[in-house]
Design brief:
The chain has 271 residues and is of the alpha+beta class. The chain has four helices and ten strands, in the order βαβββββαααββββ.
């Protein structure tokens, strides 16, 4: 593949406490929300650094069309497959911060559903000229879906968790999380698009929202961690009950999400 390593994008944002308070309420957190001078909760940085392109620059799925930053690889269907992040320090609410994104790698492969493209982005979040957070985001680009291709055989989730909680995500929560993260991907709010174009039975729960809940569970079980890695393995749909699970394994904490029928929706590990 061509070398895209020189493509860099920098976004600057003020970590507005009003947006933090909004996510606090969307997630149903108890007590007062964090405010100016407090540390931003882990993984909440996704509600900042919006890339608000004009509507004319959106693709059929609602995402910004590739080409300007992410290369156009001729594959229109975008999925957030996995990621990892490490924390050197915590971002502070109320201060200006920057997000520098670079393309770490681009590769094309052939899979059962046809040609696939894998794009890895590296994001560095800085505050007061210091890197607080480094994040890798792995995207998969696929051919346009056929209406019958939205579902596939899903792996079975493990049992034996030592900590867990269950949650059902409703349409209002998905809509509000989309609004806070400025995510216009239609699979999260357009049920007709999900069924008729993507072949899904209903609205799809955001991968970052599922990951955020696993992050919260990890901090409940072990407290603060330095590294977190996660991988989506099957969609979770609006209205389904998901069980968020954790189990300590040596110095690491294994986490996973079990959906209806025992299907595994996401796995993660924190250290």
């Amino acid at each position: 593949m061509s070398d895209y390593s020189e493509r860099t994008r920098v976004l600057v944002d003020q970590l507005d406490p009003r947006r933090v308070a909004a996510l606090h309420n969307v997630l149903g957190q108890t007590g007062d929300p964090p405010t100016v001078g407090d540390k931003l909760p882990t993984f909440w940085h996704h509600i900042f650094f919006w890339d608000a392109v004009p509507g004319s620059e959106l693709g059929r799925d609602g995402h910004p069309k590739p080409g300007e930053f992410i290369p156009d690889l001729g594959l229109p269907r975008r999925m957030w497959a996995s990621g990892r992040f490490s924390c050197a320090s915590r971002l502070v609410i109320g201060r200006e911060a920057s997000k520098t994104s670079v393309i770490d790698s681009v590769a094309k492969k052939s899979g059962r559903s046809g040609e696939l493209a894998f794009v890895t982005l590296r994001h560095e979040y800085r505050q007061q000229n210091k890197v607080a957070l480094t994040e890798f985001q792995n995207l998969v680009y696929r051919p346009a879906a056929k209406p019958t291709n939205g579902s596939s055989v899903s792996p079975a989730a493990p049992e034996g968790e030592t900590a867990s909680f269950a949650e059902v995500f409703d349409p209002a929560m998905l809509f509000r999380f989309s609004a806070l993260t400025f995510n216009s991907h239609r699979i999260h709010y357009d049920a007709d698009y999900c069924r008729e174009t993507e072949g899904y039975p209903g609205l799809v729960v955001h991968g970052p929202l599922i990951c955020l809940r696993l992050v919260q569970l990890a901090e409940i079980v072990t407290g603060p961690f330095a590294e977190f890695e996660y991988r989506a393995t099957a969609p979770l749909f609006c209205g389904e009950e998901a069980t968020f699970c954790a189990k300590c394994e040596g110095e690491a904490l294994s986490l996973w999400v079990r959906g209806p029928g025992g299907r595994q929706c996401m796995t993660a590990i924190s250290r």
